[in-house]
Amino acid sequence: MSGITVIGVAAVTMVIATLVIAPPYTCHATINNNNQQQLHPIILIPGAGGNQLEARLTTEYKATSLLCNRFYPLNKDKEGWFRLWFDIGVLVAPITECFAERMTLYYDQQIDDYKNARGVETRVSQFGSTQSLLYLDPSFKHITSYMEPLVESIQQLGYKDSQNLFGAPYDFRYGLAPEGHPCNVGTTFLENLKQLVENASHANDGAPVILVSHSLGGLFALQLLNRNPPAWREQYIKHFIALSAPWGGTVDEMLTFASGNALGVPLVNPLLVRNEQRSSESNLWLMPRRKQFPLETPLVVTPKSSYSSFDISIFLKDIGFEEGVHPYETRILPLVEKLVAPGVPVTCIFGNGVPTPETLYYGEDGFDKQPEIVYGDGDGTVNIASLLALEDEWKDAKDQKLKVIKLAGISHTNILKDDTALAQIIDEISTINSDISSSPFVSSL
Questions:
Q1: Residues that are catalytic
Q2: pTM value?
Q3: 135 pLDDT tier (thresholds 50, 70, 90)
């Protein structure tokens, strides 16, 4: 997801720390579980960069360079599958360009859906287990830790992988579409997730499931709930805990589309990966939502124009990505029009008080140059208005329990590894397992 020339170990660590990944961490929340309470099964749904992707090249694959031929990389399994994301080798140029080429999606207007590059097959590994969520690359555990601190903390409550603790990885490049539009990859993931929920419940004496999501995973989880009938939710869902969920999108996403996003890594030319980042359906899904970013609030400013969340189509044209306008208007806008309350208890936990991109100012050099950034409140990635979207939109929702927990100074990635954040998450899971009820609307600072 980022363009790298030649990067050392220190810079690699910075890459990992910014791609929705928790940096190396050795301390975990300590749990005293002397009271043997019922453990509702938990399913973890990761954020975008927290999923491992594997790829396989078919005879239809056409390389754009000698290095990117069908025989690279040499390290494949017997069926031709190799690690696509995350592979630490992509941090060395010109391999980065091969990576971007193979990660790029294409929107086909004839079929109204996204698909892989020609000749590239992809899959996630170990669906149902948390194993692929622990590290992005198990060969480099010390610098690619993701959910490992959270999983270890949950296991201290008595949870065991694939028995009452499960993982639901997905191809994070793809998103979802509203009713009436095909969405093969995203819809298949929701079907698999639904089946995993039912299997987890049945394997645990019919106990309903606790969904725990991070970042983009929260948007998929909410869609899962609202695409299934109330009777299903009542039977199979105990609670939904959303960590750092970008309910209303982010201003940072506009930076990604306009100029490419090097994610804070030095020596990186973000323009090298801009096209690949623009091609991601899920990135388009994370554009700022109108209800959280009002018309009178400029998000991007140039010498000749300014763009609010109501001007995304014009913005896409002006940055040279006109092909993104149709899917944005026909698929994304209807999808994000409403954040429907699912009628199951929801807890949102997120950080605040971390400088977060709020307005992007571009000069005469245009969008090929990085902008000056004015920062506001948020978790460093997601703006506070987006993080608080459910509290605002569900305040009048009947029979909807919502608890909002704010953690001062905790960033979008640190929520998965900080001691205070882990303790809060574990306390919330323990409270749910104890069936201790909470008031419908609670804010904790």
A1: 215, 379, 412
A2: 0.91
A3: very high
